[in-house]
Amino acid sequence: MIHWLVQAAGAHPELADGVSLAGMLHADEQTKLAALKTEKRRQDWVLGRWTAKQLVQTVVQQQTGRVAALPEIVVRNGRRGDPIIEYQGLAVSLSLSHAHGHAFCAVVERPSWPIGADMEWIEPRSAAFMADYLTAAEQERVSQAEGAMRDVLVTAVWSAKEAVLKALHLGLTVDTRCVECLIAPVAERPSTWTPFTIGCDDGRLPQPVPPLSGWWRVWDNFVLTLVVGEEVE
Length: 233
Ligand SMILES: CC(C)(COP(=O)(O)OP(=O)(O)OC[C@H]1O[C@@H](n2cnc3c(N)ncnc32)[C@H](O)[C@@H]1OP(=O)(O)O)[C@@H](O)C(=O)NCCC(=O)NCCS
What we know:
Low-confidence stretches: none
Strand content: 25-35%
Number of helices: 6
CATH superfamily of the largest domain: 4'-phosphopantetheinyl transferase domain
CATH class of the largest domain: Alpha Beta
Shape: globular
Mean pLDDT: 95
Number of domains: 2
Strand order of the largest sheet: 6-10-9-8-7
Distance between the termini: 6 Å
Bound molecules: coenzyme A
């Protein structure tokens, strides 16, 4: 089962200032926050942790009926930057994203499972951006979209690729054209999760790629994308 949550910094002035709420962080996380150098990074980081902890708290409550204390839910980063949840052996995998004062987190109830969540603000992107980062087939699909929906589609394709690369724990360490996300043009911004297809150029990626499923939707003026290893309902 997949769970997701979006939170806005505006709902909590402390978070918008990059300060944690009382009773939110583990001591190790407080140390990490204190070491973050820029205000923007602190703002993104605390909002991401707040959102991830709230989401995991919900999952724990659904699984056990207990309310987990937020400082006991620890979100640390793996060697490649991927977020990892530590809470009493809870078998879940997490991905998170921040953009424009918001955070988006997704959790799948499987341990060490591919999952990628990404959130992008919808805005125009140049022809040069498309040529540099999108495959020819992705550009062709985007060119089928009319007017303002073209901006939505480009943003969705870019976000989808980031979500795939997060699910593979690669991030932007590889050419984004190694991953192809084909999103069918739509007449309106989808407000429900809508599937897209994912293809990966295995020969150009540094690791084998498991079968992945992807979905996208619009929330406010954001595109949200979610990519998860297959065999998850
Ligand atoms: C991963 C990456 C694509 C994120 O893109 P972004 O649009 O800037 O940022 P987002 O807000 O959408 O996502 C950031 C989150 O992605 C996650 N993330 C970072 N690297 C990741 C990776 N390799 N795999 C999966 N998730 C990753 C983290 O949870 C991060 O938030 P956090 O640092 O607060 O925990 C980008 O940071 C990247 O590719 N970096 C290059 C790899 C790198 O330098 N890693 C650092 C090693 S410590």
